[in-house]
Write a structure and sequence with these properties.
By secondary structure, the chain is α+β, with helices and mostly antiparallel strands. Helix content is 45%, strand content 22%. It has one domain (4-121). The protein is built from four helices and five strands. The strands form two sheets. Strands 3-4-5 form a three-stranded antiparallel β-sheet. The mean pLDDT is 91. Keywords: Membrane, Transmembrane, Transmembrane helix.
Length: 123
């Protein structure tokens, strides 16, 4: 009824689409030291739930109910949007600001870290 060629074609199409979906939904690479220094001030966090992972607002405790396949992309997008207002680069220093624009923390960055901040946050 089905030829072996047709079965192999379906298998290759399925593998191709799976790899494409995986690569499309991967988060952007991050600089570990700078990323970990910023996260305590970022008002969202990723939590594990029974059905997968979700983003939770740290201030209110409310879940954002985003599809599992899109959680990391949405988290990166929210981090970038938050960074527009709450991160400021001056020379080789990164200032983390609160909601009022007051400097909470300052990080000294090397060239590699500075390049990541400028690329990731478009600063």
């Amino acid at each position: 009824m089905f030829s072996k060629k047709l079965i192999w074609a379906f298998l290759f199409i399925f593998i191709f689409l799976s790899i494409t979906a995986l690569l499309e939904n991967m988060p952007a690479p991050k600089n570990k030291r700078v990323y970990e220094a910023i996260l305590p001030y970022f008002p969202y966090k990723i939590t594990k739930e029974l059905g997968g992972v979700d983003i939770v607002n740290k201030r209110t405790g409310k879940d954002l109910d985003i599809a599992n396949a899109q959680v990391y992309l949405a988290y990166d997008a929210m981090l970038k949007k938050w960074g527009e207002k709450h991160l400021k680069v001056e020379g080789n220093k990164l200032h983390i600001l609160d909601d009022n624009g007051t400097v909470i923390k300052t990080l000294s960055l090397n060239q590699k870290e500075l390049a990541w901040v400028k690329e990731f946050f478009k600063k």
